[in-house]
Amino acid sequence: MGSRASSLLREEDIEEIKKETGFSHSQITRLYSRFHSLDKGENGALSREDFQRIPELAINPLGDRIINAFFPEGEDQVNFRGFMRTLAHFRPVEDNEKNKDPDAGEPLNSRNNKLLFAFRLYDLDRDDKISRDELLQVLRMMVGVNISDEQLGSIADRTIQEADANGDMCISFSEFIKALEKVDVEQKMSIRFLH
Amino acid sequence: MTNGGSTARRPKRRGRKRGSGETNGSEGEVGGEVGAEEGGEGGGTGSVEDAGGKGKSKKDKDKDKKGKKKKKGKGNSSDSKSDSEESMSAGELAALMEAVDEKKKLIANLRSKPWRMKRRLHVLREAQEFVDKFEGALGKGKNKALYAFKIMMMKKWIKFLRDFENFKTACIPWERKIKEVESHYGSSVASYFIFLRWMYGLNLVLFALTFGLVVIPEILMGLPYGAIPRKTVPRAEQPTAQDYSTLMDFNGYCKYSVLFYGYYNDQRTIGPLKFRLPLSYLMVGIGTFGYSLMVVIRTMANNLDVGGGDDADSEFTFSWKMFTSWDYLIGNPETADNKYASITTSFKESIVDEQDRQKDENIHLRRFLRVLANFMITCTLGGSGYLIFFVVKRSQEFATRDDIGWYEKNEVEIVMSLLGLVCPPLFETIAELEDYHPRIALKWQLGRIFALFLGNLYTFLFALFDEVNNKLDDEMQIRNASIWFTKEYYANFSRYNNDSEATPPPINPADAIRGPCWETDVGIEFVKLTVSDIQVTYLTIFIGDFLRAFFVRFFNYCWCWDLEAGWPSYGEFDISGNVLGLVFNQGMIWMGAFYAPGLVGINVLRLLSSMYYQCWAVMCCNVPHERVFKASKSNNFYMGLLLLILFLSLLPVVFTIMTLPPSFDCGPFSGKEKMFHVIMETIELDLPSFVGSLFTSLANPGLIIPGVLLMVLAIYYLNATSKAYMTANNELKKKMQMARDEEKARRNNKDSTNEVMKDLEYLLPGRGWEPDPEPEEVKEEKPAKKTKVKPGAAGDVKVQKDVSLASENPNGKGPVTKQPKKSKGPPKE
User: B-contacting residues of A 24-83, CB under 8 Å?
Assistant: First the structure.
């Protein structure tokens, strides 16, 4: 499995991915073999069905949205670069990470970018605001029919009321950040990709 | 390597090293340091005024230390690059190198930082420790191999510890079951099962103690059944000894078995190991209480850590629940269902909490109603107490008469059962006047039923000790009778055999006259009580929950009114009743374990079966509460009740050990004046003589009274300290809350919510003298906010009664293959 998969991945590709995402060499090769094992169609790209074969995503109420986050706008296939780009959000944050390239911008796994990833899961129409309807959709997915619509509406109103700072009845990204300020996002949204 | 060698030979004194040829960074560092030194000295003296002369000398020390460190560091950094990674991967090594470099840079730039001396010293010490620790990893030359080995062993050890922790967590029994109950019924119902599991653990330890140290030695090394009178069924009872009804009453063979006190022999040592059984019996009896006390108090202390810090998350509760509640590591569909249900339940709990917070009614009416309710309940309790007292007195009268019917014989039990059935629902109905949050209402209910059951306990103990006193009176007579009987037997024997030399055969144990053996009788009473308690509980669950649910489910089709929505409908899990049952049961066990060692074993079996049975019953026949509420973070209320019962059950046993004389012919203490004389005997005979004199001198009142005084003072001091900490905690919380409110108000660009700040703001210059428009604005917003909030809290919405259990996770049915809708239109209004 390992040798065959890595033969399809060239050194320059690995170097580029390393620069872009910050993963190490061994991590990239390991993730490539995982990518390869998911890719049943053997065409070097993953489709939505491939993702839905993962049990943890299948039973997750927000599973579809997570899968959607892998695919760039309007496309149905994601190649290895895109796969790694999304996974880079979940790399653990290191304290002594020296910014090797000051103008490379924020690394993909910074707290801000992690929160942005999470924010985009809820903000379906990409207008940088989570509206009440979007909240209702998420609530409906999370609790199903056990709570009445009125109560769900009240919960959504209450959530907006808690987080909304400028009174526009929507949660913007900065309000989202403020609401989750005390949550240890760096630790919770990180997967320890073992060496 | 040559570079490293040359740096080693440099003079140690000042940091003015021309570090050539190492890393680029360190070159710059040296230059920087030299420059900083000159500047630093002047700046240092200027800034750190209070340190004064001290500061200067410390700085000199710093320079020396830094010089040394820099030398070593530089020497090693050149070696690091040529290292092979035996124990660490390249990534870790690189990261480590970076860290060490960073620390060294910090040490170098420490002077230029505008900090106080103390802080600089602290940082310096830390950085030096760090560099010390890890420079070896980068290859320190001499003991590099040893260091690498150490690192590897440490890693293996950490991995082993982690695996062990995982194993320990996996060993916790019934975790999945309890999680299932928790997700469907809320944390309050689950807290009962957690309490049950904790009790099971406690009883298991007591069982191990009792059986291991008392029962097993007696079985293995003691005399077998039938060898001596106390171990044999008397001749009179032998025909019926094997009957089912006698065994059910714990007479017959049951009574003369290891289960009860009377079986044990009073031989000082038994078996080849010279096991001191009477001593062990007494010690285990006392040790049971000691261990239970320790465990209860330790659990209470642990639970105190959990509470507090609760107010910190009262700010974004709903947001957090929405955005962070799913656990993305779940892969098992069943677990996903549970998690799904638990999210639903947790939303409902938050709704209840919110409702409670939004209430703002007439305080006076509420207070009046509460006083009224308490008054009514006190009257009821007083009435029931008097009724019990009256009935017990009457039963004493009846005991003297002979023409009593069935009702009079069982009057006490009937009255107590009736009270137990009628009063709790009555309390609940009256408690509706009080309108508390369900969590607090549960506590009040528990407290009141506890007070009611104390009446039960009082009658039981009263009756018991009455019987004991009677038996003690009998005992003197029987003792004389049995001595006389033995003498007669020998006299007859020698008369009939005409042979004064032959020793008579020993009296057949079954024929000897027996004393009343009141301890065994007391033990039998406790065992009977426990068994009947078990039967009643199981039957109640079966009839009250299972048959009721069965009836409601299947007879609903052919009934006039809707059984599920109206009466009787499905039952809710009765937390208070079950918890109190558990607590009182444990009290019985504690009291009875001294007189019947087998009781602990029976209790372990009972708790084990109860766990499975009740988990099944809850999942199968109950519905979640209408208002699902979160259990209080700490279990301390249950523990407090348990502690109270522990003390209450300690008293009779201690009284028995200290004052009552043991039976003369049964049990391990027969023949002694008081039970605790075993200890004195052991001290005299088994321990060296000086220990005996030590104990005698320790028992001197002159030593004990100061000891007690010291303990009282310690308690007072600790109490005062903890109160001080609590006040400090509260102050800090208040400050934090005020800061948060200020933040929010400032963010919202509105007036401050705090009255004091509002006043102050008016005094600020530039505010002008028009306070009037502002308050009106505030007032207008406030009512607007209010109406928005009320529906937001779902306070007006009728909370539906969930008849069906939580529906399944829709995603659990399999992957959804259709693509999600791509909404590209304009943003929503």
Answer: 24-26, 48-49, 52-53, 55-56, 58-65, 68, 74, 76
